[in-house]
Amino acid sequence: MNITDLIIKTTSHETNIELLNKEFFKFSDGAARHDRFHNVPYNNFDLSGVECEVGEFLYSLTRMIKPSRILETGTSTGISTAYFGLGLLHNNFGTINTIDPGECKEANQLIDDLNINHLVTFTKIHAENYSTEEVFDIAFLDSEPKLRFNEFIKFYDNVVPGGIILIHDLNRNMGSVENWGNYETTLGGFIKDEKIQIFSFWTPRGLVMFQKPHPENNY
Ligand SMILES: C[S@@+](CC[C@H](N)C(=O)[O-])C[C@H]1O[C@@H](n2cnc3c(N)ncnc32)[C@H](O)[C@@H]1O
Q1: Comparing 34-48, 100-114, 186-200, which segment has the lowest mean pLDDT?
Q2: Contact of 82 with 110, CB cutoff 8 Å
Q3: Would the N or C end of the chain have less CB density within 10 A of its end CB?
Q4: Lowest mean pLDDT among 3-12, 184-193, 198-207
Q5: How many distinct structural domains can be found in the chain?
Q6: Range of the domain at 66
Q7: Best residue among 75, 155, 178 to mutate for probing ligand 1, ranked by most atoms within 8 Å of CB
Q8: CATH of residue 190
């Protein structure tokens, strides 16, 4: 069974993401990665897309905060787009704009097969060349690691007060030992000036979530 069939099967069970992940596990046995705390295997469709458990989190986040608009950089085969899209589908509203300079044919096919193409806009451009006046409730940054801090800066003003920015593959060391660039000179000012608060998750590849302040949040 291929990825599309597995996702179609799952979407017939409106909230049954667990089934999806079980099927993924069978499918992606060889690609399992381990978490950093307990050496427990995570599941993966492929080595480019988000881990299934991370996808499940993105789905749940979408279900929980009910975003009107989601921005994504780095579409690739569309795994994270699919999880966000399923969340939007089950919310009955909201859309996602996913940006990638590549053709992303597999992603297009996946989103088509899931019947969620009315919720997804594919924008074929380098994210650094993309500008919009639109505002987003969630920005998910998953292009090339070295680009993502600058994407954070670029799209910060496009995220609503209290909105969420997520950077995939970023570990709690903020990329200090990898080829990410210097987070202190890029994101340091946002942290120092309390323009952002940070949650860092110890997933196999890393995931850092940032929240912008909102006038009604007292922290
Ligand atoms: C790690 S993959 C994305 C995985 C995807 N989010 C998923 O879960 O399936 C990275 C993608 O970033 C894209 N990319 C590379 N440079 C980019 C840029 N300047 N702007 C946007 N996307 C870029 C690549 O073409 C590739 O498809």
Answers
A1: 34-48
A2: yes
A3: C
A4: 3-12
A5: 1
A6: 53-211
A7: 75
A8: 3.40.50.150
